[in-house]
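subagent[fold] <- orchestrator: predict structure for attached chain, return tokens only, no commentary.
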Amino acid sequence: MSDIGDWLKSIPLLTKYWFAGSIAVPLISRLGFIDPMNLILWPAKFFGNFQIWRPLTATLYFPVTPGSGLLYPVNLYFLYQYSSRLETGTFDGKPADYLFMLLFNWLCIVITGLLMDMQLLMIPLIMSVLYVWAQLNRDTVVSFWFGTRFKASYLPWVILGFNWVIQGSMVNELIGNLVGHLYFFLMFKYPMDLGGRAFLSTPEFLKRLLPARRGGVSGFGAPPPRRAAPQEPAAGGGGGGLFGRNHNWGQGNRLGDD
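subagent[fold] -> orchestrator:
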């Protein structure tokens, strides 16, 4: 039990609450304490009956049945791995910034879900976080099944393709990737790499709620590295002139493992 306790203590704050909620809500429903129909995103009930909890419960709920196979535990693994890595990496010491990213992605997914009549939002939000991690660590080398190795920037699309082949559907993954790309572009790519204006910033009330830890860098995390501009060749002479971690990702699970 001490090992489990130490492991739980090692999970960063926001990831811990998200991970715990994603276990507790499906478990409560599985035990019959709550009707799953009260947890899913149902536009008619949300707007007509003012059941405002549905966007949150639809993000935490997943139907755990024999037919769901490994999809639920594999996505829990993705949540734990990539949310932890973002929270302790790019957003280390900046919990308000990380919470803002989660809220921005979540709101975009909820709006999309209401427009497209999507009932479950767990996978899109997890995939949006995985996409942001993959872009911020795009040169990290990951390993997939059968020894396939590629850069992390391709990981969200490989998972999308795998689900499309196995399940015949890729809507959840596609929406998650697009929302993750929207956040990454507005927060990092456009203002930091392309020199555009910053459209997103963490509200002050979130910074007061979750103040930055001492030693943390203010503002958002490191942007993707800029490409060095090519130098003009010197007269009469020649032209002027991330590291990767290996991951055993994908072993033992249908979609992947780290």
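orchestrator: received. Logging for downstream: The radius of gyration is 20 Å. The first strand starts at residue 141 and ends at 143.
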